[in-house]
Amino acid sequence: MQEKILIVDDEADIVSLMEQAMTAAGYQVCTASDGTQAIDMLSQAPDIIILDVMMPGMNGFELCQMIREEVDCPILFVSARQTEADRIQGLSIGGDDYITKPFSLRELKARVAAHLRGNRRVRESSSERSLLRYGILRIDLKGREVHVNQSVVPMTAKEFDIIELLALHPGQVFSKEQIYDRIWGLEAIGDTSTVTEHIKKIRAKLASQVPGSSYISTLWGVGYKWERSDS
Question: Are 55 and 77 a contacting pair, CB within 8 Å?
Fold first, then answer.
């Protein structure tokens, strides 16, 4: 089945170039020229969204915030806004990548392919693997339980959500902001310090069952990742 790309941009020439390139690469492409049209196109269930920032009416940042809770596909910003602050804002509100205009179509196609590849791995992992094993630690995704040998390690719903997110992507670093947005949602009232507290509690519970374990490691100033082994 062809993977579907939704391109949202008000510049017709750029949309035409991207549409031709992506169609030639074997993707099914649908387009929208503004945020309202894009929202209507979500019924097409795109596998990735290429989203311009500067559009009339609702801009790309506002659109991303509005739809992020409805769609879990990658969102790739393509924008003439090139400052670091713009890139950080795009990534912090739910975007998965940010490319500045003018851009190379070859690079755009490569990034789209990489995101779709990663998304396929996550879907396959989620659907085919209901039980994750890391040494003597077992994570039952369907039953939402963590086991060490035959014992259940009690976890709250949010603690399990964090474990599931990290363990499904071993070795991948998630910032506190990314974890907070994915687990609590953009509309939640609070801040990322709650992520730190939950990580501490998870570590303490796991260490009580597996002394000396280090399933979740910290990259100072960057975020957290699930180690591929429990060493």
Answer: no
